[in-house]
Write a structure and sequence with these properties.
- Two copies of one chain form a homodimer.
- Chain A is globular, with a radius of gyration of 19 Å.
- With about 350 residues, chain A is α/β, with parallel strands linked by helices.
- In chain A, helix 4 packs parallel to helix 5, helix 5 packs parallel to helix 6 and helix 12 packs across helix 13.
- Chain A starts with a strand and ends with a helix.
- The first copy, chain A, has 13 helices and eight strands.
- The model of chain A has no long low-confidence stretch (mean pLDDT about 95).
- In chain A, strand 7, helix 10 and strand 8 form a beta-alpha-beta unit.
- Chain A has an eight-stranded parallel beta sheet with strand order 1-2-3-4-5-6-7-8.
- At the A-B interface, helix 7, helix 9 and helix 10 of A face helix 7, helix 9 and helix 10 of B.
């Protein structure tokens, strides 16, 4: 069983963006009226996934993708809470319909209706709705809803605790994933995403979050940003500051494999235990197309993993076993399908 | 000749911080009067370096360190330009005195009097003063004076061009180095530094800065943040956006070796040409002390470099040859000393 834990519905039918545009127009004109989503029919929705995410998954030999709404489209920096709630619901409902169309191959991961310094209650409500009603298996949690300005408290702050309580109760992990950057100096895909992955790891080092929430599981995408490359820096910083070695986080923190060259994936697996690494490709994500020098598609991380120095047992864990453990609702969902 | 291009005067006598505290107190109280620096005598200044940076350099077998004021202490987010000018002058003058005390082993790198969205004229004046009058061999350029909020335009914007004109004319490189973060969610040493290194590389990918300034040389510290680990991501992003391959930046962009474990340094050297990598340890910097598992001091990057898969010729380039090429004023300064 090969599970890609990090796919985005970046190929949604145009009706989704039209809804969003109408939302933002209403906001900027100070109109209260919420726009209506014009739902695509099944054929259009099916085509939007079948020729993209599912084709890529199938061609590369994968079985299941955990699909969430487009990350850069979450736009948590827009400060209006009702707008954020309506936007997350529409995005998640669309992903849910994809899951229903391809129940053996797609599982949902929720966008949360975050706003800068926002309250947790709307996030908890949407997480519950997606997991309990729609069968989603995880959520995306944005550690910086201000879009690169880092206005919210660190993830170790009690500000976030009501959400963690719900995630632990629901038994779903959160992938820590920012949305678009608000600064032209901070490129969304090339800089902000990786910076946030790195910043969150340092937040977690400095707090005692998992003593308080031992059942909380966080997945840091994009191979952990700069973390594996600078593992010695983090070990040294921890020692200097009297903090536990960063390896102490590895009961609760996991890393995906969205690193788009062999040498990077090799480093990731060399530094972190295979137990903590989850196959993912971010498809269709930041990077598309193939390296002209090798002909290998940049985001074909399955290929890098198969070429890495992993035992058969470790490779199986990275490709799927770890995902079934970190996303137990995905395991139950797939078991239910298999026995149906 | 072994040259560490990234040392900070983190061990300055307490009079420096007392001056800064008085500056900030005057600012917060709205007083215009500038405080006076109480200059330490030569013996105190000598001791502050001899038992720290110079001892470490000597013990490890290094010859020369390019020393700049403490990076986190630059505090470019404080928005008052006269305060920034006075602070940079005092910091640079103190480094200059260290250079005069140890002319064979220490060369100066300047702090610039930056403020968020500030003008370039004060920066150009201080760069000229430090290079032409004090004999400094480079400057530190902060790409985000707002301290993690990324309020300034990207380094490719014409906002910065007057400074680049001066740097090219003076024939000194800039190390791109941020100062302290203003957000508790963005740790200065663990997150903001590495995030900025990464963000700047993406800025440079997206502009055509070096077509306009072919003689400009930028050094990205901390091994380039996340860049080598995600080299495939940058190649893929460039291809997707119709930009030149990031390797095209390597005539003008250099990386230091402040990566504190062997596997990280190995990746850095595996991804980037030895021609573009400059020995540095950031000492006494973010990380101090030794790995309890190996007994090796975290920031003893010379040791990692000697253990890396480099030819003798490549190792010599990384340890000093590249520095003499990228910092030609350092080469001339050392030649002058040798023939004196």
């Amino acid at each position: 069983m090969i599970i890609d834990v990090h796919g985005h519905f970046t190929t949604a039918p145009p009706a989704l963006q039209e809804f969003r545009d109408a939302q933002l127009a209403a906001l900027s004109e100070g109109r209260a009226s919420a726009p209506r989503m014009v739902w695509p029919d099944d054929a259009e929705l099916r085509a939007a996934v079948e020729h993209h995410q599912l084709r890529v998954l199938r061609e590369r030999g994968g079985d299941v993708v955990a699909l969430s709404p487009r990350a850069a489209g979450m736009e948590h920096h827009v400060p209006d809470q009702p707008t954020a709630v309506a936007w997350a619901r529409v995005c998640n409902d669309l992903v849910h319909r994809v899951c229903e169309l391809f129940p053996d191959h797609v599982a949902g991961v929720a966008q949360l209706p975050q706003v800068p310094r926002g309250e947790m209650a709307p996030l908890v409500r949407e997480a519950r709705r997606c997991v309990e009603l729609l069968g989603f298996v995880g959520v995306n949690l944005d550690p910086d809803p201000s879009g690169g300005r880092w206005e919210d408290p660190p993830l170790t702050d009690e500000h976030w605790f009501p959400l963690y309580e719900a995630l632990v109760e629901l038994d779903v992990p959160a992938m820590v994933h920012v949305s678009s950057s608000c600064s032209p100096a901070l490129d969304t895909l090339g800089a902000h995403y990786l910076a946030a992955d790195t910043a969150v790891f340092v937040q977690l080092m400095q707090g005692e979050l998992f003593a308080r929430f031992p059942g909380l599981r966080l997945v840091i995408p994009h191979g952990g940003g700069a973390v594996p490359f600078h593992w010695g820096r983090y070990r040294g910083l921890a020692a200097r500051r009297g903090l536990p070695d960063p390896a102490s986080l590895l009961d609760n923190v996991f890393f995906d494999t969205c690193v788009y060259h062999q040498r990077g994936v090799d480093l990731l697996l060399d530094v972190l235990p295979a137990h903590n690494v989850l196959f993912a490709s971010e498809m269709l994500g930041a990077v598309r197309g193939a390296d002209p020098e090798t002909g290998i598609e940049w985001d074909d991380t399955l290929r890098y993993l198969r070429a890495a120095a992993l035992s058969e047992h470790e490779l199986a864990a990275v490709l799927g076993g770890n995902a079934l453990r970190v996303y137990p609702r995905l395991a139950r969902r797939l078991e239910g399908r298999a026995s149906a």
